[in-house]
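Exercise 7. Predict the structure of Lipase from Triticum urartu.
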Amino acid sequence: MILHNSMATSLFLMSLLMLFLDSNPCTALSWRNNSLVDDIGIPCPVSPHPFTMCKSEAEAYGYPCEDHKVTTEDGYILSLKRIPHGHDTDNSTGDQKTRQPILLFHGLFVDGVSWLLGTPEQSLGFILADGGFDVWLANTRGTNTSRKHTSLSPKDPAFWDWSWDQIAEYDLPAVLEFVYHHTGRQKVHYIGHSLGTLIILAAFSEHKLLHLVRSAVLLCPIAYLSRTRSDLTRLAAQMFLAEAVYRIGIHEFNPVGKVAAQLLAKVCGDPKIDCHDVFSALAGPDCCLNKSTTCAFMLHAPQPTSMRNLIHLSQMVRSEGVRRYDYGNAKENMKHYKQPHPPLYNLSSIPTHVPMLLTHGGQDFLGDVPDTRHLLKTLVRNHDSDNIEVQYLPDYAHADFVIAYNAPRLVYEPMVDFFQRH
Ligand SMILES: *[C@@H]1O[C@H](CO)[C@@H](O)[C@H](O)[C@H]1NC(C)=O
Ligand SMILES: *[C@@H]1O[C@H](CO)[C@@H](O)[C@H](O)[C@H]1NC(C)=O
Ligand SMILES: *[C@@H]1O[C@H](CO)[C@@H](O)[C@H](O)[C@H]1NC(C)=O
Ligand SMILES: *[C@@H]1O[C@H](CO)[C@@H](O)[C@H](O)[C@H]1NC(C)=O
Ligand SMILES: *[C@@H]1O[C@H](CO)[C@@H](O)[C@H](O)[C@H]1NC(C)=O
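Solution. The predicted structure, encoded as tokens:
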């Protein structure tokens, strides 16, 4: 029984890790020494500098950076970073009032630094600041810089008692409203990646936040997950592995994530196992990662999340439709929702006038093509054709959209054009 449990847990851990790596780290990085070494032999720094985005990333490149704190209605104190204008030596900074605010919302297992990992020419956060925007970087509850609460400590299980429902319901409006008010009531352009797309689709489907958002760009839009091409993710969901981990009393993912990283190092260290195959099967091959950026990415991940969030995502892999978290029985669901089944987020009811750009990749096993097609069918059919655009990149997988060396040309330029039109 115990063996069973730990085997199941290991498998689960591996698949989770894949979700966020979603790259081919073994082609980019060697794990053979239990450390990250890129394939031209330059080791990643042994211990990353304590991560505070403003100091270590933005200011290091000469960008201004502000650190704001935003308290959600349910008490989480979130860190919200701002790069108000471009490089300090850049004279085109202009009048702050003319700079449109943009909120960047990261995905699962990472945080706001994922937008700043490469050089200023490569990273979306810097590119937008240099391009004349007022850039804001969200960090969801639980991640390294957002681990405070008005009454709870991360050591309390209650601190982790949430899924992405609550990110959509509390974190997202809190940061959007903060940006809106702080910039003199300017509507905000939104950019989400992965889970950062699911939460805004969920909010829009309930006709929320529309008065705050000027347009939305969805990178690797995630909503439906039941057709995922990631076999191991599906297996983990079908084995109820997240649920098993939760039941043994682990409510925060992070301790699990550390074990997973070690496990992965072992697996990739075994010469009999071809890591490339393992990774491709799990998450799909990224085409265009710069090794040094990948290295930085791996050092900043996995960021903590709650086990309940992972349970919610497994529920979505197991079933059609996008629903709230299922408490597992009619009685509990009645208590929370006043109905025996969790309520549906009806994506067909997203208002048809919201300007949206959806960008997805052919190699992405998570924001996979069949599920994305289904989402597009739901969204595009009724949407004002002037207000929806779809971009497809056949070679791109999940992480490419955030850290690929050619993303500035392929993804970010069209995105800025889109903002200029809306
Ligand atoms: C492992 O690390 C040691 C020292 O850090 C180095 O000498 C050795 O070549 C490495 N081995 C491999 C397989 O990378
Ligand atoms: C920027 O502005 C300063 C003073 O306003 C001026 O001396 C400098 O030449 C300008 N730099 C560029 C690159 O235009
Ligand atoms: C990758 O990044 C490094 C430094 O960050 C840079 O020197 C190199 O030119 C980049 N490679 C590509 C292909 O962009
Ligand atoms: C998060 O913070 C902890 C402790 O402050 C640190 O040990 C860890 O490396 C950090 N993780 C990341 C991914 O930045
Ligand atoms: C979802 O919304 C659409 C459009 O408003 C509506 O026609 C449909 O009946 C709704 N579906 C459900 C299950 O409520």
